Amino acid sequence: MGRRKGSIWVAFVTGVTLLGASACGGGGSDKASGDDAKASGKPSASASPSPTKPAGPPMLLETITPQTGTTVGVAMPISVIFTNPVAAKARATVEKHMKVSASQPVAGAWHWMGDKRADWRPKTYWPSGTTVKIDADLTGVSNGNGRYGVHGYTHTFKIGDDVRADVSVTGHTMKVTRNGAPVRTLSINAGSAEYPTWNGTMAVIDKQEKVHMTSCSVGISCDKGSPDYYDLTLPWDIHLTQSGTYVHYSTGDPNPGSGSARGSHGCVHLSLADAKWFYGQVKQGDPITITGSPRGKAAADNGYADFNLGWEQWLAGSASGEQTTSAL
Fold this sequence. Notes:
- There is one protein chain.
- By secondary structure, this protein is mainly beta.
- It has helices spanning 91-96, 272-281, 311-316, and strands at 58-59, 61-65, 71-72, 78-82, 98-102, 107-112, 117-122, 131-137, 148-149, 152-159, 163-168, 173-178, 181-187, 200-203, 206-214, 231-239, 246-249, 268-270, 287-291, 323-324, 326-327.
- The strands form 5 sheets. The protein has a 5-stranded antiparallel beta sheet with strand order 2-4-7-6-20. It has a 5-stranded mixed beta sheet with strand order 3-10-8-5-21.
- The radius of gyration is 20 Å and the shape is globular.
- The termini are far apart.
- 47% of the residues are buried.
């Protein structure tokens, strides 16, 4: 959303434990969510319970992303969230039991983001057209804290067209490519000097045709008489970070570009027509790369910003190191 003199037209997230406030609307949570981002925490059809119950309470998974049967972008990690903490001493064994297979060989590795989330990403982007499968055979596997897996989980998904968007904050442009070929260049506005946009690459978390954004929900103002108060439902929203960054249309900035340059509280603004078009082009896991902002890169666990870590940084958070996918 945009900003007008004397009033704030962009939601500003407070109380986000991961990264602080930089959002433009909709609030934020401490994990990726949304209809596209959620994956079943229940056993898949191929999962089978252990015939004998291991000692101790069960080790369960809250989510595995992507969902089975989905088609995602080239920057989409496999993200596994555990219900309870996994001890450092148990992570190599847990990684070993979360087997990643692909229809063509891909080098990659697991990386722990805290003690409950492990992501597997390729060293470079996934090749378009690849089919990927994760078999989390955790039956009887210990989390190092007295819990043991009682289920196996299987998710299979596909990597779709290689759709990318490169945003220049200073140039007020977004260049969209598909499978390496330029498609369109759109006019944009990004964050203001006071509330700059995150730099770096953020894979799309999810998208919604409408998002309800209020100043009260993100701690700006609940006073309807305040010039900072707003309560708006805005269309064509592409979700980039848990802290609330979106690409979307804003009624406060209807004609973005270098001529208006109103700025936001961190979101990327498109015109209504461009926002609707872009919404139809992108999917979960497509990389949106932002450059030219005075702000640093979004943290890797702020949504799916895994590629904001260099490969050596990524491997430093892995218990088992680089691996090549098994044949599928």
